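Sat 14:20. Reprocessing the chain from the morning session after the first attempt stalled halfway. Input below, unchanged.
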Amino acid sequence: MPTRFIEGSEHRGDAPIPAAPGDALPRLSAAIAVVAAAATLAATICATLGGCASVAPGGRSQVTMPTSLSSVYSSIDMNMHLSSAETIQDQCVGVQCQLNAGFDKQVQRLGARLASSAYEIYPDLQQRVPIFHFVVAEKSQPGTTSDASGTIIVYRGSRNGKLDEQVLAFLMAREMGHVVARHHDEKSAAGMLLSLVTQVFLPVVNVTRGIATLAGSAASVWGSDAVTRDNLTAQGSEVDQIAFELLGRQGWTVADLADSLSAYSQGLVENSWADDLRSATARCEKQRMLLAIAALQTPSVAPGSEAKEPKRVSPSFARIGAESTLAVPGLKLQ
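Finished this time. Tokens:
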């Protein structure tokens, strides 16, 4: 987009003259009008391409971009995460190669089971994400990442520590949860809208084209993090719930997961991925407590009396937070 200048009342060659103080209000009004037009344009694009409004599995309203568009954006974001993680430099030898191959097969086997369950639970998912791809990245630190197209990446360093199969399945299922709940599409929408507004707004206020382009690119890549920060807690609960459901289909209960997840997360170094997993561990512990309280509240049936139909609770995982099916007086979940 060519750079625009709000010009003053006189010129000196081709150089723009700063507007007089009395022109400040018209310039501000023009800037506001352009931002409003950019937002309207973005909304129009969304409506034309299938709509920006969607609802997460937990019922939260979202603004998303179509997966066909956000796949490109989220792939760039995923590769940025990969590039920032330390790569394993040494080639495996002997037994280590066999262990690596076994881990790769385990990821593929678990991924196939989890994907099958995801398509059963969410029938519309396959139209948006026809297939999940599971990849082990040669990164020394523990971690996972994903993109909107259904690529799920597990860092090889995740094997370090007390990683058993249900914890590995949970890590993979949480990344799948981001795809199911359209979190990548949500982040892409925020980044693209902010980038559009930046590209249009900065030239209006006499910022050079190069700076406007750089700022727009930065807004697209990093600005969405700030825009969606308020949703991080909600997104964490959503991916946990999806992961709980997927693991429940594999026969694992919350009791199976809670202790193993706690032991694994305690050994992690301090970083944002580990902090997020510790938050998930705390939610899992609360889930186990809810189920234990529900079991204590189940009424007993006296001999010879007519049994009543008990309130049905999932034997593996029940919803947490505001959607919990278990009423626990005095207990508030975030």
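Confidence is low (pLDDT under 50) at residues 1-21, 211-224, 310-334.
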